[in-house]
Amino acid sequence: MNTSTCRWGILSSASIAHKNYQAIFHSGNGRVVAVASRDQKKAQHFIDACQLQSPFAPKPRALEGYEALIADPEVDALYIPLPTGLRKEWVLKAARAGKHVMCEKPCGISTADLEEMIRVCEESQVQFMDGVMFMHSQRLAAIRSVLDDGVSVGELKRITSMFSFCAPEAFLKENIRMHSGLEPVGCLGDLGWYTIRFSLWAMHYAMPIKVSGRILSGAGRKDSSEEVPMEFSGELFFEGGVSAAFYNSFLTENQQFVSLSGQKGQLTMNDFVLPYFDAELGFEVAKARFEINGSQFNMERHSTRHGVDEYSNNHPNAQETLLFKTFADLVLSGKTDSDWPEIALKTQRVMEACFKSAHNHGIMVEP
To answer: What domains does the chain contain, in order, with CATH numbers?
Structure first.
């Protein structure tokens, strides 16, 4: 293996892979060498389109069939954005072939499936990581510093998060996320993975002692055997009295809000998953003050904006680039980091418990 460059293969030509093709291009330690699709012409079209903005030299090869990519001796790591219902088979094959695995989310149909995927990766001594971009943003370190300073927010009591988009009619009729065999947990998997992950991160990955979930509305494509969640709300309850609420939806216009409330203040972000287009990422700390002066009852705004010099996307220091750079650094080091698969597994367990609760009238479930 080239010890200075991680050689990437992309298994599928899913739309998110366009963004990550460029992230690898900007990473400085990675190169796309091949892309596989069930149709070689589709893989070639994908490469030709991506090369216009991210011109690798030599140009990546288009392969027909996923097996060909897994068997390719020039590939060190695979990025796998296949539908969740298809993912386990190819993660296992990739790991057994000695390929490191970057896996889209949700990682598995079930916790048991993900446990097997991680076990095989560990036995094969390859790195496993999910593709949650915000985990690699420099903004998280700045937020952690504020949360831990004991003054800005104080003792954490409540976490609230929302991630949604209003899907067009074509999405509702055709998209894989509307098929129970491909994406059985619908918006909970596609969007809830992020809201759950942020709550776990804020809690230093302590697991909730119980959770509850509610499917607020559901639907499915004509060829889907069951409905999938279109709107979902959940509650997580942690030791020490901290609680977290989240809401995800394919029916509510773009929102990606998170609030961390404590005894001394509140930290908020309005773009915690996909940062607003800018050269700086930010968050706000508020310490509102209630003042009474005779008949005047005033709620005073006292807030401070914190900024981090980081581009929002498609840039050498953007979070998706840092995701692939971090992963490639591990591959090139010859060592694996067990924290990443453990974080993914905790997210899967909480998500599955919320889904189980929702199918049992919102009863409390222990993850």
So the answer is: 6-134 (3.40.50.720), 137-318+347-358 (3.30.360.10)
